[in-house]
């Protein structure tokens, strides 16, 4: 067995050896991570606000808060991915199936953003499903 993976004799086997466990995000960090997701709703009122909102929050707070860095990138990736999905479904509207897809995408968008905001507010690093990771 490798010496670096062995536990000291006085350490119970069910306790982590690491002395510096990552601190849980504080209230402000969780709030900014949540706002990175919720700011995407500005796209309903401002052109490209769905991408600009999370992008602005991420750029301003990414160096200050690790959770905002992670969740800001996740929100931006989701917004870009869903923009692509919406564009494809609008093209499909010419063969009528796109109307159904646009409606389903919009409902999924609302639900996923709200779930992501709630998880971020809990300090959880949420991952959107079916998202292309443009920014890593």
**Quantity of strands, as a count:** 0
**Given the helix and strand composition, which structural class is it?**
mainly alpha
Query: Distance between the terminal alpha carbons, to the nearest Å?
Result: 35 Å
**Overall pLDDT level:** 86
List the total number of helices.
4
β content, as a range?
A: under 5%
Unreliable stretches: 3-21
CA gyration radius, whole angstroms: 20 Å
Describe the main β-sheet briefly.
Answer: none
Shape: elongated
H-E order: HHHH
Helical percentage: 55-70%
Query: Domains counted in the coordinates: how many?
Result: 1
Describe the 3D structure.
Residues 3-21 have low confidence and may be disordered. This protein is elongated. The chain has 4 helices and no strands. Helix content is 57%, strand content 0%. It has 136 residues and is mainly α. It has one domain.
């Amino acid at each position: 067995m490798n010496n670096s993976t062995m536990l000291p004799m006085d350490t119970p086997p069910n306790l982590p050896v690491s002395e510096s466990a990552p601190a849980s995000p504080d209230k402000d960090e969780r709030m900014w991570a949540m706002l990175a997701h919720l700011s995407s709703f500005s796209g309903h009122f401002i052109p490209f606000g769905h991408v600009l909102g999370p992008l602005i929050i991420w750029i301003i707070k990414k160096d200050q808060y690790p959770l905002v860095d992670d969740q800001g990138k996740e929100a931006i990736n989701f917004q870009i991915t869903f923009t692509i999905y919406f564009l494809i479904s609008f093209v499909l509207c010419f063969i009528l199936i796109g109307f159904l897809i646009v409606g389903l995408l919009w409902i999924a968008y609302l639900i996923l953003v709200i779930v992501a905001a709630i998880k971020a507010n809990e300090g959880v690093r949420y991952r959107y499903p079916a998202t292309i990771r443009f920014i890593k």
